[in-house]
Amino acid sequence: MTKFSCCFGKATTPTPTGGVNPRANNHGSNVDVSIELLDAENMRLYKYRDLQAATANFRPESKIGQGGFGSVYKGVLRDGSEVAIKVLSAESRQGLREFVNEITVISDIHHENLVKLHGYCVEKDHRILVYGYLKNGSLDQTLLGSGYCSISFTWEVRRKICIGVAKGLTYLHEEVQPHIIHRDIKASNILLDEDYTPKISDFGLAKIFPAHLTHVSTRIAGTQGYLAPEYAIRGQLTRKADIYSFGVLLLEIVSGRPNQNRRLPVEEQYLLERVWHLYREGELERLVDTSMEDVDIDEACRYLKIGLLCTQSLPKIRPSMSAVMKMLNNEMELNEKDLTDPGLLSELVTYKTMKNNTSGTSSSGSRKPDESQSYGNTTTSYANMTFTTITER
After folding, report:
1. What residues does each domain of the chain span?
2. Are 173 and 242 a contacting pair, CB within 8 Å?
3. Where ATP is bound, by residue (predicted)?
4. What is the pLDDT of residues 175-198, one digit of tens each?
5. What CATH class is the domain 1-133?
6. d(CA 50, CA 31)
7. Which of 257, 260, 261, 286 is the most exposed place for a label (fewest CB within 10 A)?
């Protein structure tokens, strides 16, 4: 993996792979998190003035995204190449850790369904990541967005997106060494290139997962609606947490609607609950997006069932990503007899409410909650069971 030389104000903790643990001293109140030197292999070190020129001094018209840790701008480099420039807010301590973590995880891995990180800038207090620009934006802005979208999301396009994301996750979970858990698979982190090839983005929360471990106990990080129940409640992270998130995303892509929408009647607000109810009633076809051209209803319903398999409450019975890939390609039989109740968002919210009513405090105790990060219309939380409402799209 990539090697780093960093200064966090205190001694850094070496990782098993020989790099620096970007999570070291995460909870220290007086840690100096400024980076004096960050040396990554296979990464270009950009000068701030070049990125400033590429975005016309980061003018508002160049901004294409806004997150809790900073902004994303479209830029054109001197050689004419278009890039996406992610600028970290100087005030964000949590974001700096995500910045280092993102470079650690993906600087030396390459796959057609993962975003390409070209390089970074660490001049003075500037912390910037430079990616290849993807002209068709993210799924939450296009497929699930409420505004005008010029993309025709036919069934073939959606099928390509589902399979592409599954390929990317299979690579992270089973092929790259050591394995990687993304921890924030969601519509706003799936970007599309000009050919509608999906790219998994934003690896700031990703965890390296050694093969000999069954799970990692860690702080909860992810987005409401996509969080697996065992992870949201107990902080036990395995690859099955990503698979749960992918299952929710699969349901969103087929149905063309976000995982939560409070504008709908109460019984229809939570997508996963609605899919499960209609599955039990034998009416899954009602969830297939009617705006699609030439949709294969049978295949679309099979994809919804695969989404239900991925979101089952018990992680051990969720399929692996390689099995999901085979089912999506119709290379493996989908055994509905194995399908059990999903882990539902409404139940997690109820659990959180009951816990707060009982203890009078959040499950993160007296500690201050970590910063939360907004992407598009969702909110990412970094404290135990800290949920916020998803804005309707």
Report:
1. 1-133, 155-381
2. yes
3. 86
4. 998 899 999 999 999 999 999 999
5. alpha beta
6. 31
7. 286
Catalytic residues: 184
3-state helix, strand, coil in the chain (%, to 5): 35, 15, 50
Rounded CA-CA distance 224/365 in Å is 20
Alpha helix segments (H runs only) across 130-268: 155-170, 229-234, 239-255
What is the C-alpha to C-alpha distance for residues 112 and 164, in angstroms, rounded to an integer? 8
DSSP per-residue codes, 248-293? HHHHHHHHTS-SB-TTS-GGGSBHHHHHHHHHHTT-GGGGS-TT-S
Contacts with 78 (C-beta within 8 Å, 6 or more apart), sequence order: 50, 53, 54
86 belongs to an annotated ligand binding site:
yes
**Could you give the count of Cα atoms lying within 13 Å of 186 in the half-sphere of its Cβ?**
27
Task: Please tell me the least confidently modeled range out of 96-110, 232-246, 271-285, 349-363.
Answer: 349-363
Pairing label, strands 207-209, 179-181: antiparallel
Under 8 Å between Cβ of 210 and 16: yes
pTM of the model: 0.79
Residue 129 main-chain phi, psi, to 5 deg: -110, 140
Residue 217: which H helix or E strand, with range?
strand 216-217
The helix/strand/coil state of 340 is coil
pLDDT digits (tens, 9 = 90+) for 7-20: 333 333 333 333 33
* Partners of 85 in the β-ladder: 73, 130
Say how far apart CA 113 and CA 115 lie, in whole Å.
Answer: 7
Class of domain 155-381: mainly alpha
Cβ contacts of residue 301 below 8 Å, gap of 6+?
284, 285, 288
Please count the other Cβ atoms lying within 10 Å of the Cβ belonging to residue 63. Answer: 15
Chain-centre distance of CA 122, in angstroms? Answer: 24
Strand-pair partners of 44: 119
| Both tokens assigned to 243 | 């698979």
